[in-house]
Design brief:
single chain; 208 residues; mainly alpha; three-stranded antiparallel sheet; two-stranded antiparallel sheet; 8 helices; 10% strand; globular
């Protein structure tokens, strides 16, 4: 997709914290060293998946290979998740931990609940739980606005309110949990897979 301000500010930084990229902020990118070994492995895996997926009449061996590459991709993303949780200065880590704990307690999460999690992450937990309960019982409707940087403005530090579609941290984190094979989407919610609960408990407890 090319290099632009959004990539360098969000996606590149996220991938760096996940252990896929290596670069210094404010410096030029050297594509020889841009990808870590884990990043190079991930690129090779998705290239192989793309190539095998394009085959219309797959042999049995090719089908098995494709399944194996999907498993390898899942393993790499899970390693990225563990790498991310080690980055204590990363703004995503605290939110991700709260997200995992929420999934362990409530079994599922949607984008609105994630927005509530962000809003209440430093506030009264009992109030948060009551609001989630009322939301899940369809007693209340929640409209979410996101305060984001205004890239269309020439004023430094200018912010603007956007709808929930601009909550990019949700896309990054739920995408990672999904690609790591920990959650599965059903309608608008993502459910923690029963056979991954123990694994998530180990992650949250710092035992993996």
């Amino acid at each position: 997709h090319g290099v632009n301000n959004s990539n360098s500010r969000n996606i590149f930084a996220f991938c760096k914290n996940c252990g896929l990229l290596e670069y210094e902020s404010g410096c030029g990118i050297s594509f020889e060293t841009f990808f870590t070994n884990l990043g190079k492995a991930y690129v090779k895996i998705i290239e192989s998946i793309s190539m095998l997926s394009a085959e219309k009449n797959k042999s049995e061996e090719e089908a098995k290979s494709l399944t194996k590459f999907y498993e390898l991709r899942q393993n790499v993303i899970f390693q990225c998740l563990k790498n991310l949780l080690k980055q204590k200065d990363c703004e995503y880590v605290d939110v991700l931990m709260k997200m995992l704990n929420f999934l362990l307690k409530s079994n599922s999460i949607d984008k609105t609940e994630f927005a509530l999690l962000l809003f209440y992450k430093d506030n009264d937990n009992s109030e948060f739980e009551n609001i989630v309960k009322e939301y899940r019982n369809n007693k209340i409707k929640i409209d979410v606005s996101v305060n984001v940087r205004n890239d269309d403005s020439s004023v430094i530090g200018d912010r603007v309110l956007k709808d929930i579609g601009f909550l990019t941290s949700w896309s990054y984190l739920i995408g990672m949990l999904s690609e790591a094979g920990l959650v599965e989407k059903e309608r608008q919610s993502y459910f923690l897979l029963l056979n991954k609960r123990t694994l998530v408990k180990e992650i949250v407890g710092g035992n993996i």
